Amino acid sequence: MNDSTALARAVLGRLLERGLREIVLAPGSRNAPLAFAAYDAVAAGAVRLHTRIDERSAGFLALGLTKVGSPAAVICTSGTAVANLHPAMLEAAHAGVPLVAITADRPARLRGTGSNQTTHQVGVFGPLVPAVDISDLSGIVPDETVASEPLSRQFRQGLPRHLNLQLDEPLVPEDRWADPPAGVGERARGPFMGDGPVTEIPLGPRTVVVAGDDSGPPARVLAERAQWPLLAEPSSGARTGTHALRSYRLLLDTDLGRDIERVVLFGHPTLSRPVSRLLARADVEVWSGPVPGVWAARPFDVAHTFDRATVDECEDTTWLDRWREADAEVGHALDALLMAEPGLTAYDVAGAVARALPPEGLLVVGASNPIRDLDLMVPRYEVGGRRKVISNRGLSGIDGVVSTAVGAALGRPSSRSLALVGDVTFLHDSNGLVLGPEESRPDLTIVVVNDDGGSIFATLEQGAQQYADRYDRLFGTPHGVDLGELCAATSTPHLRVTSRPELEQALATPNGGVEVVEAVVRRDDRRALDARIRALAHRV
Predict the structure, then answer these.
(1) Cα–Cα distance between 316 and 86 in angstroms, integer?
(2) CA distance 326 to 186
(3) Which of 263, 395, 442, 466 could form a disulfide with 409 if both were Cys (CB 3.0 to 4.6 A apart)?
(4) In terms of Cα–Cα distance, which of 35, 24, 16, 125 is closest to 65?
């Protein structure tokens, strides 16, 4: 066995022993030893293989697989191929997802020379992603080099890792890998939680529970025990039960929101400025749970921290009732306002997708407007329905979302898989639709809210009337792309809808496989519509 083949098999073997379930491969020459080893591992039934021609898409596919509990490694060749993994690795680092990148490199003797496709790869992802430079078998003897414990447990640590392998010629094997390890085969991934002692939080002042991304059931359980309002983002895993509020972000800028004296915070809140302002208030005491990702410090003052929390049961619902009544009134007003709109709105689309998500279903949501629209439209799902809503909220980028959704749908057995994305997000990762004829294809309905550009900026400062003369060129960026023709290029079924009945019908009759439902909405009225929605809370 040549040295490169031995090294590739040893590294993959160690990961398989620790529970690697998926390999995403981007083809290349220098990573050929890894590709052959992966193929043999698949033939032995030890792992599943996904091949992609675009490294950025491959990285986000692996991210999606790992986020839903099917630990994945992404493999690529040297040079710029490695740089294309950077967005997915940064998202993994900030979201606390233990994604593994295995990159092929030239031998060290060629570094600092003009050797083709050779650059400085060790540490290319920066200080947030630990990197190991492995030149031979001696470099993988310590367990901590590759994996010191099952990958399922590493979700508690939430650290991605970069394994850089120096592979010298010859790059092809003389034989097949006859006995790759079978691995532990356990699924991974629950909400990010600490494992330290339980802290008892006193009932005390007027309190709300804020559940950011990946908070999970503990936020809901605490809110219900204490009779506190639950302000849960759609991807929190806590938007269930009787205490979750639909219109909380509208109510935070009212007198009711100003009455808050304390916040108990779970997960990573990212969606709204009202929540950010609440957490930054000097008159609000913040209790903070564990923070996923590599940056553990909150960007605001924290009075107390905890790993796990409990509270005495409370029967007094006076404070909660005030929020429930206001939430119900604003919710009814919002529904009436949207029903009176003459055409399909982005909020209509988010609401229809939320209602179409069945128990045991999966929903992947893009950044920008879709996740925020869903925040106002998603119902309080019943406890135990096991609906999973995920979003790349570590850095909240629009890149790689189609590939993330495909990976998540492949990695999690679900009653139905949906994705909700904007048109710019969809275009940014249209390569995610490029699937070879032998690749696994999930049943996934991708709903694209198409307003021909980036309408989120219309709701921000740059969308003010004084900047209207340059808004489209700098921020709105209309693209005029025919999404149907784009889908046709990859033989992806596509349906264009322009009304609520058409959208409801499309969602009720999935065709199977990957399909795209394009929901066409206006962009020119987005700022005015959002202003009218924000005004609803002030009438309560």
Answers:
(1) 50
(2) 45
(3) 442
(4) 24
Name, in order, each residue with C-beta under 8 angstroms of 344's C-beta and a sequence gap of 6 or more. Answer: 497, 498, 499, 500, 503, 519, 520, 521
Which residue in 72, 93, 95, 94 sits closest to 26, CA to CA?
72
Maximum distance among all Cα pairs of the chain, rounded to whole angstroms: 76
What is the Cα–Cα distance from 448 to 519, expressed in whole angstroms? 6
Whether the model clears a pTM of 0.90, i.e. scores above it, the answer is yes
For residue 258 the two structure tokens come to 């100003």
3-state SS, residue 158: coil
Amino acid (one-letter) located at 66 = T
- Structure tokens given for 341: 């709109």
Which helix (DSSP H) or strand (DSSP E) does residue 257 occupy? helix 255-258
Dihedral sign for Cα atoms in the order 122, 9, 293, 272: positive
Lookup: tokens for 506 = 């499309």
Q: Which amino acid is at 131?
A: A
Interstrand relation of 207-211 and 198-200 (parallel, antiparallel or unpaired): unpaired
The set of residues, in sequence order, having a beta carbon less than 8 Å from that of 467 and lying 6+ positions away, is: none
The size of the chain, in residues, is 540
Residue with tokens 């205490």: 243
Tell me which residue of 292, 345, 343, 278 sits closest to 530, measured CA to CA: 345
What averages of pLDDT result for each successive group of 10 residues across the chain (540 residues)? Answer: 96 92 97 98 95 98 96 97 98 94 96 91 94 87 57 65 96 95 65 79 96 95 98 97 97 97 96 96 96 90 96 97 97 97 96 98 97 95 96 96 98 97 97 96 98 86 90 89 98 98 97 97 92 91
Q: How far is CA 296 from CA 93, 320, 526, in A?
A: 11, 30, 35
Amino acid at 99: L
Q: How far apart are CA 466 and CA 15, in angstroms?
A: 56
Residue 253, CB half-sphere, CA atoms under 13 Å: how many?
A: 15
